[in-house]
Amino acid sequence: MTDPQFPQGTNLKPSCSDFEDCRNKTYKEYLKSLNKTQLATIKGLETPRELVTFPAVVDGEFLPGRPNDVIRQSLNADHFLLAFTKDEDEAYVKMVVSFSKANLLEVMKLYNTVFRNVKNFTEIVIKEYKEFESSAYILQHKVDADFVFFAPMIRLADLLSQYIKELYVFSFDHVSAHSPHPRWQSVPHGIDLYYVFGAPLVGHKRFTYDDLDKEASREVMTIWSDFVKGKENNDLQPYQESNKKFTHLVSRNNEILFETKDSFRTRKMHFWNKYLPSINNNSTLGANEVKMDRTLIPSGSATQTANEMKQNRVTVSDKENSSSGFSCVHWLLVATCWTMLFLFSL
User: Fold this and answer.
1) C-beta separation of 66 from 58 below 8 A
2) Cα–Cα dist 124/266, whole Å
C-alpha cells in the first residue's frame, strides 16, 4: 500500500509489515488470513487527502518490479497500441464559472506531493500554462490532461520503443458536429469509446450522430480490430525511439482522415517527464527554484493559444449542461496499471 510519506520513486511495499499480526506475510497471504470483520475494517480506511492515489505499488504480487526492470527482462507481447483522445480529462462545464483560483491552488498542492522537492511547483506550472490563466478551471483542465494522461502515456511509449518495433500511438481527434461539449473542450476523455464500440452506427439515446460520425466509428473500429487480429494497417505509423511519430484521426472538409505527426506535445511532455523530475531529484535546486530555465524546455506552440481562447468564449447552455455529468471508463487497452506508475517511478 502507498504510504503518504513516501517520496517519489519509493512506492515499494512488498510486505504488509505495518499491519498488526502480519509478520512476514505477503499482502495476499495476509488478506486470506483475515476474517470478515477485519476485512471490513480495512475496507473502511480512508485515504489521506494529501496523498495522490494514482501511483501503483510494486507489491511483489501483482506488480513484480519496476517497469524499467520488468519490461527489460520480458514482454508478453510483440506489438502495442496506445490510444487517447485529443484533449483527454473530463471537464464539467458548470465548474468553469464556479472553480476559483483558490480551488486551483488546492489542486496544485495535491499535485505537488508527486514532486515534493520542487518548492515553487505551483508557480512553475502556472507559468508554463500561462496562456490559460484567464480561467482557473481551464488551466487546471489542461494541466490535468497532460499530467494525468498524456505524460505517463508518452513516457510508457518511450520506454516500450526501446525494446519493440511494432508500437503505435493513436490520437482520436474527431469532433462531432453534434457534440454537446463547448468548443474549447474539443475531444474530452472517453468520447472515443462510443466510436470504438459503434454507437454512431446503432444510435445512442444521449447523443446525435451524422454520417461523418458513422465513418469515424467505422475507421476507428477497423484500427482496433486489425490490431487485435495482427493485421497490418497502413494508416498507423510506428512510434520508434529515434522517430516518435504518432497517428491521429481527424475530420476535415466533411471527410475522415488519418494524419501523422513527428512528435506529441514535445514541450509539455518534456516539462512533465524531464524538466520537473530533474528539479525534484535535486533538492538544492528545488528549494531555490524560482524561475524556469527555458534552455531545458524545447520550444513549441501551446495546445491552444490565448487568441483561440478569446475566440472560443466559454458559454454554458442547456445542451452543454446536459452532458456535465458524463462519465466514462478510461480507455487503456494495453498496460493499464503501468501507465500511471511511470510518472512516479524515476
Assistant:
1) yes
2) 18
At residue 95, the pLDDT reads 67
Strands (E), the chain: 79-85, 166-172, 246-252, 255-261
pLDDT tens, position by position, 112-161: 888 888 989 999 999 999 998 888 888 988 998 999 889 999 999 999 99
pLDDT for res 170: 95
Residue 207's DSSP bridge partners are 204
For the stretch 191-214, pLDDT in tens is: 899 999 999 999 998 899 999 999
Q: Say how far residue 126 (Cα) sits from the centre of its chain.
A: 19
Render pLDDT for 259-268 as a digit per residue (tens, 0 to 9): 999 989 999 9
User: What does the DSSP assignment read for 59-76?
Assistant: -SSSS-S-HHHHHHH--S
- Of 256, 279, 1, 269, nearest to 115 (Cα)? 279
C-beta neighbour count of 248 within 10 angstroms: 20
**Angle, helix 101-112 to helix 121-128, in steps of 10 degrees:** 120
Domains of the chain: residue spans and CATH: 1-65 (no CATH), 76-342 (3.40.50.1820)
What is the torsion angle, in degrees rounded to the nearest 10, for the CA atoms of residue 252, residue 254, residue 259 and residue 264? 50
Query: How many residues are present in the chain?
Result: 346
Mean pLDDT of 300-319: 37
Say how far apart CA 67 and CA 345 lie, in whole Å: 8
User: Residue 237 is which amino acid?
Assistant: Q
Phi, psi of 84 (to 5 degrees): -155, 175
Q: What is the mean pLDDT of residues 226-230?
A: 91
* Tens-place pLDDT, residues 14-34: 556 556 666 666 767 777 777
Q: Which helix (H) or strand (E) holds 220?
A: helix 211-229
The CA–CA distances, whole Å, from 268 to 39, 71, 245, 273, 341 equal 42, 25, 16, 8, 19
Q: Give yes or no for a contact between 154 and 270, defined as CB atoms under 8 angstroms apart.
A: no
Parallel/antiparallel/unpaired status of strands 246-252 and 79-85: unpaired
The answer to whether 109 and 52 are in contact (CB under 8 A) is no
